[in-house]
Amino acid sequence: MRRVTRIATVAIASTALTFSATACGKTSDSASGSKEPSAAIAYDIGGRGDQSFNDAAYAGLEKAEKDLDIKGNDQEPSEGESDADKVQRLTELARSGNNPVIGVGFAYAPAIKKVAPKFPKTTFGIIDDTSVTGKNIANLVFNEEQGSYLAGVAAAKATKTNKVGFIGGVEVPLIKKFEAGFAQGVKDTNPQVEVLKQYLTQPPNTDGFSKPDLGKAAAEGQLDKGADVIYHAAGLAGSGTIEAAAGKGKWAIGVDSDQYEQPGLAKYKDKILTSVTKDVSDSVYNLIKSVKDGKPQSGEVRYGLAEDGVGLSDSNPAYQKMTDLIAAVDKAKADVVAGKVEVRTAP
After folding, report:
1. Residue 35 has pLDDT above 80, yes or no
2. pTM, whole model, 2 decimals?
3. Where are the extended beta strands (E) located within the chain?
């Protein structure tokens, strides 16, 4: 992967965590005038190395570079950036000849709305948003509530205290989908289980997606109240949640990527029961492939349980031994896919 020079890397760290997000070195200017196909992604809050959402998008770009013989470029967000900064970033990537250009996260919607019409021959992808549309815009979206429902089933089966927790990064409609599905899955499995809920920040403050110390503090509060399984939907901030849960010997449930497999979380992996996965990687890869094949995706491209676009990971050997839990999750998945269970998208 050859990488676009960073505009400004988000400065985030947790004393107990180290993240390896090594650059592969190249500026977007080197793509200018190149006839070699290239594609680009612009990262969401937290940037590459979040062990979650952004890293999943990068994995799709990396796969496309290897399998489709294209050049991959990526750019980081800057701390506290404005929509104008995103407009500048997307404009630079499109002007440099990248196609498609993909905004990782709903925060790119205003920028794509402005930039896409100026580059009608370039396909723009946006992950987790359907508010902005156009002939050259692909909206890559997921049924997060369905994967979260399975996490709720797993949490209800795994808890010994009958208290579980949900920690959302920022209280926005997208993250409310995670909360809604999780709480429904818990209650449908065992109505006696209490679900503790907390959001780290309120919009427009997005620190809840980027600061592990906030996730850690929130998890410690829920652990003190008796929660023994905590599910986070908080991006990089969720790494603090995992750290806190593991430190107390309790279960954490990851999000977006299979966080059990993330190198930056290896110290805590034994206590990552499972993760709600979103196939962000394949959504990025599929969009890039569609452009290269001359049939670019556009409009809403949705991934749910039926397409294995969301799901629950089983990498942890401890999870694999929980036969009752696995049976309950499998039944829940079958019921959702068959339409027997309709998962709510709002609490």
Report:
1. no
2. 0.84
3. 38-42, 71-75, 101-103, 124-127, 137-142, 163-170, 194-201, 229-233, 251-256, 272-278, 299-303, 310-312
